[in-house]
Amino acid sequence: MNYSYIIKWLGTIGWEKIDEADNRAEAEKLVREYNLAFHGGRFKIIKKRNNKP
């Protein structure tokens, strides 16, 4: 089963999707980079099932 990881950031109007990654390690690396770029903030990673073969 294939999964992708959605990265969301808590903005002024709620949780906003800002990126997507193919694996958990890549998603965590992107969160670290966004944390620096956004000067902190709240992020969450959501595991999503892909229906693609």
What does this structure look like?
- The chain is α+β, with helices and mostly antiparallel strands and 53 residues long.
- Helices cover 26% and strands 49% of the residues.
- The protein has a three-stranded antiparallel beta sheet, with helices on one face.
- The radius of gyration is 12 Å and the shape is flat.
- The mean pLDDT is 91.
How does the SSE layout of this entry go?
Blueprint lengths: L1 E10 L2 E8 L2 H14 L5 E8 L3
Antiparallel strand pairs: 1-2, 1-3
Q: Low-confidence runs (pLDDT<50, min 5 residues)?
A: none
Side-by-side strand order of the widest sheet: 2-1-3
Shape: flat
What is the end-to-end distance? 8 Å
* Biggest sheet details: 3 strands, antiparallel
Query: Could you tell me the number of beta strands?
Result: 3
Strand content: over 45%
Alpha-carbon Rg, integer: 12 Å
Q: Helical percent range? A: 25-40%
Q: What does the average pLDDT come to?
A: 91
Global structural class: alpha+beta
The number of distinct helices, counting runs of at least 4 residues, comes to 1
What letter string, H or E per element, gives the SSE order?
EEHE
